[in-house]
Amino acid sequence: MRILIVGGGTGGTIIANNLARRLATEIRKHKASITMLSASDRHMYQPGLLYVAFGQMMPDELYRDQASLLETTIDFHVDPVEEFNLDDNRVKTKNGTVYNYDVLVIATGSRIMPRKIPGLEEGSETFYTEESAVSMFKSLRNFEGGKVAIVVGVPHKCPIAPVEITFALHDYFKERGIRDKVEIKYHYPINRIHSIENVAIWAKPQFDEMGIEYETLFNVEEVDVENKIVKSMEGSEYNYDLLISIPEHHGEEVIEKNKLGVDGWIPTDRHQLTMEGHDNVYVVGDTTNLPVSKTGSAAHFEAEIIAENIASIIKIGIPVSEYDGKVYCFIEAGRDKATYANFNYLNPPDLKPANKSMHWFKMSYNQMYWTSVRGLL
User: What is the pTM of this model?
Assistant: First the structure.
């Protein structure tokens, strides 16, 4: 049984390691093999980019060598896939190599699309790449006061990010002693301040207490970079001195080019996590079109189900588990306190008051991640 994993992020890495241990006997007897194809030889801890944007982490702290995170029985190659031929069970990579498979896992992730909005890419700061996070920190360091606008595109990775960035900006300017010189206005595309109702209910009074202004039903149409004006499709405008954006995300370009899904999101069975129409193709993490948050925790829970099912199909011929939509999100509510959202397809999150203990648990997880991604936690 040839298992091919395309993508070396959180989901792909956990699946590979989990399968390597579950199928140790089969691999030793040459009845199974695991190959991973990735676009990079480095693995990034993506949640750390928010800390980089506020000078709390250095970029080099976010990375580990991908090979060092994998079990030794996994055949790892830095050779990104360019063509998917799902009907013939094979892919072709950038260097022209063809890989045949019996089971395929697509874990290619997502990308930001600020260029969809005129002026957004050149007119705003964000933190979804190393380069943009460093740029944002430099802009924050040089900012001495004025109007800060936060704008949000959908869908985007980490649904809690808009709220977290707002809390973080408040605390950052407060610590610098210039909060009274800064007007922060939060803009959100639907008619409440967050898509998850209980998060909106939890965050709104805190915004009020911090003096955060907010405007809902604000879908960004364009950014006038020269005059520093952000305009909405609904007809409103806001003059800013610093614009922070959560850009709309798409799946990776290779998925769009191969027409595997609209905007790069692959149609995925919400319980079995197989690609619609292809029972031997599994999809994990940001790459899916599932109605769950695009977070590392969702990828982690999905990865465990996928690995368990692939192993059980090899061993007994049928899958044994189903994904219930489980997501667990830490929510940083400032410099020294945090809470969490725990939910699934059927049960919305019930947020508790933020506290210091949860904040330090989140900070500890920044280091525990490397154990987690190896499938050991």
Answer: 0.94
